[in-house]
Amino acid sequence: MIKGSNVALSALSENVGSVIVSLGWGSPTGEGDADVSVLLLDQNGKVRSDADFYFYNNPVAADGSVQLLGKTPTADGSEDRISFDLTAVPADVDRIVVAGSRYHGAHFGELEDVRLGLADGAGEELLRFAIDDVDAISAIIFGELYRRGEDWKFRAVGQGYGAGLAGLATDFGVDIDDDAEAAEAQEASTDADPEDPTDKATSKNEPTPQRSSETVPPPRKPEREEGGEQRKRSTRPRTAKKKITLPKAAKPSLADHESWRQARLFPVSALKSDHEREMRATSVLLSVMAQVPEFGRRLTAAFGAPAGRMETFTEVSLPHGDTPRRPDGVIRVERAGKLWTALVETKTNGNALKAEQVQAYMDIAARRGYEAVITLSNDVALEGSPLVDVKIDGRRKHKVALWHLSWAEVAHQAQMLIRHEGVGNATHAWLLQELLHYLQHDNSGCHGFQNMGRAWVPVRNGIDDETLCQGDARALEVVESWERLIRQVCLGLGGELGQKVLPVQRTKRGTDPGARRNLLADQLCVDGRLQAELRIEGTPGVLGVVADLRTGKLRTSMEIPAPEQGYPLSWAKRLIRTLADAPAALHIETLVDGAKGGPRGTLERLRPEPADLLPKDTGTRITGFRLSLVKSMGSGRGNAETGFIRSVDEAVHRFYTTVVTHLDPARPRKTTSARP
User: Fold this and answer.
1) Rounded CA gap, 292 and 244, in Å?
2) pTM
3) What digits encode the pLDDT tens for the residues 377-408?
4) 517-570 pLDDT, tens per residue?
């Protein structure tokens, strides 16, 4: 589409009751990012109340009409998706504005390939809109959905705002609260419900959301009138959340002896076969999805499911030729009398999905008018590399979407809800905690990606004896396994921190994922190293991971920029003080302009003499510092104590907890040069 054009959604697809809008961008450095927001407007072009403003602190509409699904990494940046259930949008909403914004003075001109995409309920992309001329713009209206009679249309807008997210929201009638701390204090003192003991019990344990953009928090609950009725009150958005999360410290145990085991809702000790593990895991997951709406909705919204009443089933028999097929599970969501149905195929441990099984379920779903087939296993899907190849009959009018979930993604979403974002009540939090305990148990078989594959040992041997040649298919297999491992490390760390952790792909815009992996496989054959970068929200740099298969060493590192003001000696002293509790073996290198490298040394050696970090040539400009930790990596292909996968996971967690947590958070940098 071009700027200003519009199109009726019904002319593009028959499955537009729910749609997914994707906002994407690339970054030359791999670090650029933006936030998405949605405004529901009436016929006057204004929000009906502040509750019609959806953004990072208010991501889901109570009626399910809007849900911000979060970011997913792409080859050159990231993509932020929003799910719209157009059948649930209130009748007095005339227009839906979809916008994006940057923060701390950043603008969209620093990003590349700023774009919007819209897909139907089956996941098929219907349209694309590329936005140009965004040099000095900090907020953009990408597009809007609007009513025309009973139909919905989309208009490509591309209008920029220099005043950022707050200015954009204010123009549409949202009352922004600029004093977040005062708002939170007022929230804590006035909003506690005296009739709700859960409110009092959990308010002290609620995490304060941390964002690096303008503070534009969600509205609070309506006040109560005398007699118990609620009256609407126009309040400005603010950061306080009223959600149940797990306490930071566990309660003291009442057990008489440490060998006593706590009773669990989902026991795992009796599981003895893969079939039993698959049946139990499917039943446990689907039952919790049905009973905890926030969790079920979060897992299915990305697949085009509407917001509605969810029911789940296991071991269902469906006709298929002479032999009935029994998918592991079925998910059904009912909304306004319409059903959305997905078949579920589950695998645990190292068992791989079978193409013929998935193909049969795709055929059954197409014949019966079901919307999706969801596969669930310990493997991690990669962009442009499907886990299972299936054939789609183009003659069929009804299209079925094939989606994949990793058990690591399921655990990540449970962690985000019960430890950081919160759920509706204490029972839901307890159910999610029991699910998480089950998934993390050694006997559940739901541990996520745990095997580097059959090519791992031959590739390592080929690197050791220098017989591995470029173009070897086994090197490509190892590169794909490495990418899966890094994605899983991001999920695990992000779930623990409650922050976005995404892999960085430093490739040219439009590069085919397969071509990129072939290039990395050739590099592995030449230098024997696997490399990756992780972008962690709120940190001053990108966390790099290098696995050197020749030396058997793992290096984790981060480059931090030099301060904009002050003197180099002050920078060095402050850095050493900041890292007072970091490991003594931490390696610090000074980064300088126009040279291969500056002074370097271990933290232990530099503590008494921070000046050793300064170049001898006083005219050399310091651009930053590189912090690194090195450890031996496991040799096995699996996740055992001596395995490679576990060693990578431990190395990343160790570097973050012992080094990154001591550093100052990310700050905006001016374009002027640092003082020499």
Assistant:
1) 13
2) 0.70
3) 999 988 877 888 888 766 666 789 999 999 99
4) 999 999 999 999 999 999 998 899 999 999 999 999 999 999 999 998 889 999
State the Cα angle at 434 between 429 and 435, rounded to 5°.
Answer: 95
Looking at the DSSP bridge assignments, the partners of residue 561 are 624
- The string of pLDDT tens digits covering residues 499-508 is 889 998 776 6
Asked if 159 and 131 touch (Cβ cutoff 8 Å), the reply is no
Residue 52 Cα distances to 47, 69, 177, 576, angstroms: 6, 17, 15, 48
DSSP code, position 575: H
Mean pLDDT of 484-491: 94
CB-side neighbour CA atoms (13 Å) of 56? 20
| Element containing residue 577 per DSSP (H, E) | helix 568-578
CB 421 within 8 A of CB 292: no
| Residue whose tokens read 């104590």 | 641
pLDDT of 194 > 70? The answer is no
The distance from CA 155 to its chain's CA centroid, rounded to whole angstroms, is 28
Cβ-contact 34, 131 below 8 angstroms:
no
Angle at 502 between CA 478 and CA 110, to 5 degrees: 120
Residue 327: φ, ψ to 5°: -60, 155
d(CA 278, CA 444): 9
| Of residues 179 and 414, more confidently modeled | 414
21: β partners: 82, 118
pLDDT tens-digit readout, 116-160: 999 988 778 899 999 887 777 889 999 999 999 889 999 999 988
* Gap between the Cα atoms of 597 and 305, Å rounded: 53
Q: What is the 3-state secondary structure (H, E, C) of 342-385?
A: EEEEECCCCCCCCHHHHHHHHHHHHHHCCCEEEEEECCCCECCE
Q: What per-residue confidence (pLDDT) applies to 259?
A: 81
Instruction: Supply φ then ψ for residue 215, to 5 degrees.
Output: -80, 105
